[in-house]
Amino acid sequence: xxxxxxxxxxxxxxxxxxxxxxxxxxxxxxxxxxxxxxxxxxxxxxxxxxxxxxxxxxxxxxxxxxxxxxxxxxxxxxxxxxxxxxxxxxxxxxxxxxxxxxxxxxxxxxxxxxxxxxxxxxxxxxxxxxxxxxxxxxxxxxxxxxxxxxxxxxxxxxxxxxxxxxxxxxxxxxxxxxxxxxxxxxxxxxxxxxxxxxxxxxxxxx
Length: 206
Hints:
Elements: E1 10-12, E2 15-17, E3 22-23, H1 39-50, E4 55-62, H2 81-92, E5 97-103, E6 112-113, E7 127-128, H3 131-147, H4 160-168, E8 177-180, E9 183-186, H5 192-205
Parallel strand pairs: 3-4, 4-5, 6-7
Antiparallel strand pairs: 1-2, 8-9
Helix pairs in contact: 1-2, 4-5
């Protein structure tokens, strides 16, 4: 099997990437007490740029200082900008582009979620965020994306009726995706109990 376009440039929104080799976001297990990028992670990403990656997507950084995420690498305050600037400069120096993954840990790691529904993925049943808190988190995501001049945004929106229809007639909804603990999954591939949890989560917040 050959990939004739693998090393040719590609444009993603307004960003041109030198080739189609991309490093997916993944946790490194490293963080720092002040929530900025540790030198060892900056060097880790720089090594990937030196190796020829066209695009690097970072591990997750949180967008809010207190809600739905434990202390981690952050972008919710201007005090973190110098650290991010150093990371970007070091990666750009070798011709690679770098995207920042902004996210929340949610009920799995923080003990807070849009609804207080237990999941087998959780250590404890999460506290339900208030509508005002959820709105504040949405605002924090938008602020981080816009002020960071983001060019690629992935939004998952699910409708309860659509999810119920997919349970009844899965063959008609093979492309329906949902968020499950920090990753996308095809709804019809989930076990029935997980499908019900997805529906309950949508119903409770809606």
